[in-house]
Amino acid sequence: MATLYSRDSNASGADASSVVEPALPQAVGYVVVVVIGFIIAFVMVLATYVLKKTAGEDNRKTEMFMTANRSVRTGLAASAVISSWLWSTAMLGSALVGYNFGVAGPFWFAAGCSPMIVFFALLGIACKLRIPEAHTLLEIVRIRYGKVGHIVWIVLCLINNIIAVANMLLGASAAITALTGMHVIAATFLLPAGVVLYTFIGGIKATFLTDYFHTFVITIIICFFTIKTFATPEITSVGHMWELIAAAGNQHPVEGNQNGSYLTMTSKGAILFGIIHILANFGLVIMDTGFFVKAFSAAPQAVVPAYIIGGIAYFAIPWCFGTLMSFAALSLEGSARFPTFPRRMSSTEISNGLVLPYAAIAIAGEGGAAAVLLITFMAVTSTISAQVISVSSIISFDIYRQYINKKATDRDAIRWSHIGVVFFGLFSACFSTALHYGNVDLGWTLYMLGVLTCPGIFPTVFTILWKKQSKAAAIVSPLLGLATGIAVWLGTAHAFAGEISVASTGQTLPCVYGTVASALSPALYSVLISLARPADYDWSDFRKERLAFDDAVPGFGTTTGAKSTSGGVSADEEADQRSSYEADKAKFKHWGKISAVWSLATFLGHWVLWPLPIYASGYIFSKTFFSAWVIVSIIWVWGTMLVAGFFPILDGRKQILQVWRGLTRSGEREKDVSPQASRGTATPVASDSGSGKEEKSSE
């Protein structure tokens, strides 16, 4: 494994066994993970209570608990999109690949995320158009392909969620342990605890609010490091950093890079990582039902703008932060400031994701350690919350409601959602612990996860966008793809290393081959099987089954032709619904075209037109070019902070004002109990669907 993650065979230095003392006391780790975790949980629970009292958002109703009444506005949804990919892995991993490969590493990390986030706008709006009442991806699969297809996707999606959470917890717990000395298993079990509490009570809306708060804090801290890095006496400026990195490349040349330099996009190791990363991330996004839950929760007109804005804004975080922190580590590891001085970091430390914590300590001492501890904690808890909601939706809607109790009531679904939240929180901690004791770390999961997450990419996209995919193709192709990917992965690992072990299966080339086979072979299998016996699915069949517990889906009316829980609809009502659907259909097709153009433009820009010419040229960055590269990334990340922090406030100002009025009127009602006052208690409820209109609440 050292051959994959260390920059050269001597990366461990002469004293690799020496232990770096934690920069912070162990008590600080417990305070952040336990005390702050439960404080945030309490605040989110309180916010849920306030929204229920002032805005009528009742989390005892399934539509509110699971999809926030499908009314989340663009600003809050965009912040949640940024948060969904603002994993602890994103910050720890981008610094890791920057330290290993130079400027190319963080860029390819960022480029491996933004295209599929923007592409998800297309999938989200297509789902809104074709099956507006859906709660999960798996409901869509079940309606189109039946029980067998449904079970296959349940397995694929659960594998995706389990691997994703394990990846997050392994990196976060290792970083927290390095910073505070807190026992790694204690961190692994305590991190999900607060998440389970507020998700249990608040549901998806609590997840959105927590996403917003955490993302705002994290981006503020990242912006702090963009200033503090260059206030360090050993660095002082971007130009001086270039000089230090150029010297580091001469002293420790990077194998596979142009002239061994860190200052080049011509890096074989980085582009191979980029291939793994973009395919694995397509799998993580498309097979993560949490992304679909958030898309279903957004107001219809908010889906496309939220995912486009969120995807473009997110790009700056791993690009800028990964570049600055990895280069700070390379610049300072030869000085007494660096925690490992006088030795370099060992391959184990690098693979555990400790480049970022060590760089932060070198830049800002205990303050830097505390900042990284806080952003690691917030990143991992925010993304775990989304994963917990995702799995709980599978357990309640796709397992319990479908196979245990078909007549499940609203209360039954909520109860099983709660059971799913608690179960997955506990299971994820246990699974991550097992991986830790199996000598599996962040670096290994970062490289191999695509083998397991990618088989469902094309069958899922075809399910939503291609009516010709047959039932047989949908069921068989992901299973064959998974088998193909695993076989190629293990076979190449054995061929290159002579054995199958954690070390051999974590090497770059086996992971590249396995991920590519796992991602692309299902497309071939599906097309061939579908051409042999093509289907011609009628998209309107999606709307024949009633999925929502309430009579109407906000922003789209009652589903046309669906059998209502109240006993059906009259001919006049159905005609009105059909007219409403046709009007919304035209709008959604317009948004679909916009999302398709943006998806293509983002991929071409971030993966083709920008990086590949620089890669092909073999160019080594001059001081001027490097300065421009870093300054643009810093400006971009500050823009991301403004989008994540202030856009939701501006966009949601009407509901904020509504909540304030509700709170003040509640206080007035407590003081004034006259009959006249009691008759005027109806509170205007601002629609969060984006119309900006107000409706009277009914009690």
UniProtKB/TrEMBL annotation:
Region (Disordered): 665-699
Transmembrane region(s): 27-51, 72-101, 107-127, 148-170, 176-200, 212-231, 270-293, 305-330, 370-395, 416-438, 444-465, 472-492, 512-532, 595-616, 628-650
Cellular component, GO annotation: plasma membrane
Domain of life: Eukaryota
Record-level Gene Ontology MF annotations: urea transmembrane transporter activity
Main localization, broad class: membrane
Pfam families documented for this protein: SSF
UniProtKB keywords: Membrane, Transmembrane, Transmembrane helix
Compartments, record wording: Membrane
Membrane topology: Multi-pass membrane protein
Biased composition regions of type Polar residues, renumbered to the chain: 675-688
Classification via PANTHER family: ACTIVE TRANSPORTER, PUTATIVE (AFU_ORTHOLOGUE AFUA_1G17570)-RELATED, PTHR46154
Family the UniProt entry places it in: Belongs to the sodium:solute symporter (SSF) (TC 2.A.21) family.
Protein's name in the database: Sodium:solute symporter family-domain-containing protein
